[in-house]
Design a protein that fits this description.
single chain; mainly alpha; two-stranded antiparallel ribbon
Length: about 130
């Protein structure tokens, strides 16, 4: 017998993950994801997750007055072509290098620039060669 197979047979199998029920009462399906709600996190099955997304998209369209397909297309095009602020990394830099650049750009830290010739040694005219 192959020694590798013997080792595999002697190992204990990992227990399966516990299946979690959907948060909706009466739903017999198992949850596939967690969604953050006002009350906390909810475990949802695929059917209720799709319904939740559909409900939120209908609410968004109602809030923005998007009643026709043409309005929805125009709104989407406007959102895609809108000017974005690509300097958001300056407000919340994630690395030390980004922090250093953000400080320089935003002027948080005074970085003194060297003026050419300011620290040159004076020339003694008495020395002759």
């Amino acid at each position: 017998m192959n020694p590798a197979l013997a080792l595999l047979r002697n190992q204990d199998l990992e227990p399966r993950r516990q299946l979690i029920d959907c948060a909706y009462k009466g739903c017999m399906s198992h949850a596939i994801c967690q969604v953050k709600r006002k009350q906390g996190w909810a475990n949802l099955c695929d059917f209720h997750y799709a319904n939740d997304n559909a409900d939120s998209s209908y609410d968004y369209c109602a809030r923005h007055g998007l009643t026709t397909t043409e309005k929805k297309i125009a709104h989407t095009k406007a959102m895609l072509t809108a000017q974005k602020d690509y300097r958001a990394w300056m407000q919340h830099p994630k690395t030390a290098l980004a922090q250093e650049f953000a400080d320089k750009i935003l002027g948080r830290v005074f970085v003194r620039e060297r003026v050419p010739g300011e620290d040159d040694e004076p020339i003694d005219e008495e020395i002759s060669i």
